[in-house]
């Protein structure tokens, strides 16, 4: 048996400002820093130890991982960053206020954009500052793999190869794995791991800074148990 812990980053400055964020590299808010530190404290209280950690290439997830590992006294473990764990790319919604967007397009449309499995947001062109082709951190990737906007389905299709190639072999080897990532990249992972349907995933939300602790079979990767380390 292996332990798998998923943490969504602590509150970000744009969670606080209620803006669509996606691949925009905003920092943690003050509350977000505290949430990440508390997540570390709760993992320590639960007696968890990790062999390896994974995160995205976005500051809010990387810092959350580091605050959590610091709380655990485990900043030394190997950690790997991948764009495949990034938040879903919100396309032309990036940077817009969610409430104002709902006033303009209606609550239902915004709910569909935010939570449906296969509805794409409006896309950005390569001339947009929000297109990843303009961000040096993606310069080594084939530009054809870079998204102009993603739904959960497309997000899942780029998260799962990373799970299969990098993370699953660690769990099959009995290693304890910590992943710090984002609301929607983690929804994609949870959907895959738990076998949640396209309809039911619409109702699944993952809270900031709240570790999800899975016991995973090191024989077949099935979920043995799931626990949520909620805020005190
Ligand atoms: O803006 C975003 O990138 C995400 C996560 O904060 O928002 P939502 O919950 O609307 O998918």
Q: Which features characterize this protein?
A:
6 strands, 232 residues, 7 helices, Rossmann fold, binds 2-phosphoglyceric acid, alpha/beta
Could you provide a short overview of the structure?
The chain is α/β, with parallel strands linked by helices. The protein is 36% helix and 13% strand.
Detailed description of the structure:
With 232 residues, the protein is an alpha/beta fold. The protein contains 7 helices and 6 strands; from the N terminus they run βααβαβαααβαββ. It is 36% helix and 13% strand. It has a 6-stranded mixed beta sheet. Helix 4 packs across helix 5. It is globular, with a radius of gyration of 17 Å. It binds 2-phosphoglyceric acid. The site of 2-phosphoglyceric acid has 9 residues, from helix 7. 2-phosphoglyceric acid (2PG) binds next to helix 7.
**From the 3D coordinates, which CATH architecture would you assign?**
3-Layer(aba) Sandwich
Specify the helix fraction band: 25-40%
Report the span from N to C terminus. Answer: 28 Å
What would the CATH topology be? Rossmann fold
Number of helices: 7
- The helix-and-strand class reads alpha/beta
Q: How are the strands of the biggest sheet laid out side by side?
A: 3-2-4-1-5-6
Assembly level: single chain
Unreliable sequence segments? none
Q: How many structural domains in the coordinates?
A: 1
Query: How many DSSP E strands?
Result: 6
Radius of gyration: 17 Å
Gross geometry: globular
Which whole number gives the mean pLDDT? 97
- Distinct compounds present: 2-phosphoglyceric acid
Strand content: 5-15%
**Helix and strand element order:** EHHEHEHHHEHEE
């Amino acid at each position: 048996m292996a332990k798998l812990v998923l943490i969504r980053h602590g509150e970000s400055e744009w969670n606080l400002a209620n803006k669509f964020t996606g691949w925009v590299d905003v920092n943690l808010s003050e509350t977000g820093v505290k949430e990440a530190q508390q997540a570390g404290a709760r993992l320590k209280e639960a007696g968890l130890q990790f062999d390896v950690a994974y995160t995205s290439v976005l500051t809010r997830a990387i810092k959350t991982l580091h605050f959590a590992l610091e709380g655990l006294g485990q900043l030394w473990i190997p950690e790997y960053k991948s764009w495949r764990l990034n938040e879903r790319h919100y396309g032309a919604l990036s940077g817009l206020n969610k409430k104002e967007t709902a006033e303009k397009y209606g609550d239902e449309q915004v709910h569909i954009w935010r939570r449906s499995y296969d509805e794409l947001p409006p896309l950005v062109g390569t001339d947009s500052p929000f297109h990843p082709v303009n961000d040096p951190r993606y310069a080594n990737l084939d530009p054809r793999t870079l998204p102009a906007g993603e739904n959960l389905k497309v997000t899942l299709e780029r998260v799962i190869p990373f799970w299969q190639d990098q993370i699953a072999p660690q769990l099959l080897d009995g290693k304890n794995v910590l992943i710090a990532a984002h609301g929607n990249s983690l929804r994609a992972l949870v959907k895959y791991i738990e076998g949640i349907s396209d309809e039911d995933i619409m109702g699944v939300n993952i809270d900031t800074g709240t570790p999800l602790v899975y016991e995973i079979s090191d024989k077949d990767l099935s979920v043995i148990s799931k626990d949520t380390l909620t805020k005190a």
